[in-house]
Amino acid sequence: MLDKNFKDIISNIKEEIINTQIKTMQEVNSNLIMLYFKLGKIVSENKQYGNNFTKQVSTELKLTFPNMKGFSERNIRSMRLFYEEYVDDKKWQQLVAKLPWGHNLLLIEKIKDKDIRKIYAENAMYKALGIE
């Protein structure tokens, strides 16, 4: 039988592993959101080329990165919208970088009032972090 001290040590090790996994996933998510923001900027700056540009970007990215998801025409357009929505607000950029991509899209699509959207975004972030 394991003594209580050993069980506590193992429990602490498991907790550290879980906390590290969570932090790693959050960092990966944040990096992905910032990538989408940067891609959105590029598409926005070149929107004079029209929908064909978005289609060509999508095709090229899918060919270059066949094992990655997220480069559909629709998602590329969403990246542009995401960028245009938050380009002038650094605080918003920091907040939305903590939310999954799907949450960000849902908030933009469903809640037009930015003040109300901010409340929902903050609540979603707190919930994701386990803060009620």
Main beta sheet strand tally, sense and closure: none
Instruction: Name the helix and strand elements from N-terminus to C-terminus, one letter apiece.
Output: HHHHHH
Count of beta strands: 0
Shape: flat
Helix count equals 6
Taking Cα atoms only, what radius of gyration do you get, to the nearest Å? 19 Å
**Average of pLDDT:** 89
**Structural class label:** mainly alpha
Strand fraction equals under 5%
Return residue spans where pLDDT drops below 50 for at least 5 consecutive residues. none
Distance between the termini: 38 Å
- The proportion of residues forming helix, as a percent range, comes to over 70%
List the defining traits of the structure above.
mainly alpha; 77% helix; 132 residues
Layout of secondary structure:
Blueprint: H1 4-45, H2 51-64, H3 73-86, H4 90-96, H5 101-110, H6 114-128
Helix pairs in contact: 1-3, 5-6
In short:
This protein has 6 helices and no strands.
Structure in words:
With 132 residues, the chain is an all-alpha fold. The longest helix has 42 residues. The model has no long low-confidence stretch (mean pLDDT 89). The chain has six helices and no strands. Helices cover 77% and strands 0% of the residues. It starts with a helix and ends with a helix. It is flat, with a radius of gyration of 19 Å.
